[in-house]
Amino acid sequence: MLQYIKPAPFRIKNHPQLDERWVQDRIAEDPTILGLGDLILKDKERSQPRAGRLDLLLQHAEESKRYEVEVQLGATDESHIIRCIEYWDIERKRYPQYDHTAVLVAEDITSRFLNVVSLLSGTVPLVAIQMNAFMVEGRVALTFTTVIDVLPLGLVEEDEEQLEVTDRGYWEQRGTKATVGMADHVLDLARAFDSSLELKYNKFYIGFTRDGRANNFTVLRPQKHALRLELKLERSDGLEVKLEEAGIDDIDYNTRHGRYRIRLKKGGVRQHAELLTELLRDSFEHFNG
Predict the structure, then answer these.
(1) Closest Cα partner for 278 from 145, 163, 196, 189?
(2) pLDDT at site 20
(3) Looking at the whole model, is its pTM more than 0.85?
(4) φ, ψ (nearest 5 deg) of residue 222
């Protein structure tokens, strides 16, 4: 028969044998205990130019995400929050190919600083995690509870009604007449699997509508000498290999929005029509599935 044991909470800050380094080592041994996903340790006590040392740098095992983690025993304070954001800012500037998130771990995130961190989370991708320690039959257990998560970014389609609607002439006047024509070719490819699709011209991008309603499975951004497609798709090494083998090497993946960004030069839509039709269909099904 299972027996109930009441754990005894305690503060690591007040413990004679445990310290901040001990907590860092436990997280480094198994970063998944933070509850932020399948993370692996990238570095510990990472030296920062003229700014001290970052406690832990964690990286997602499959996605291009990094987490700058600062551990604080006891209650949060101003210097700890500032240091956490400072290290995040340094790392994101040094390695812009990753999506970076600042992570603040503390034994006590007070109501005062909870409000401050909440305000910052709207502009800085910041996660605040409350750490609790318990003694159970002479052994130490740790729990980590996220009290503030990264403020999720709105999707393009969620903001559709607030966007300034323009027309084809607006884009052509920006000196992109040829690349706006490429958007027409993309529409022709998309209509191969849904004839109701139309283009909708917004101030910052050209989207799609389906039966008169926004359906931005892919958005288009005409530039002076190229057209950028942003397709809603899950990241796939196989897909990236296929694109590179086709000669499309100007690609990247925005993990925060879950979109592939592909830049095609003039003539690129016709040149890669078959592959693009496949990608558009996959994006359409993924977005509307």
Answers:
(1) 189
(2) 92
(3) no
(4) -65, 135
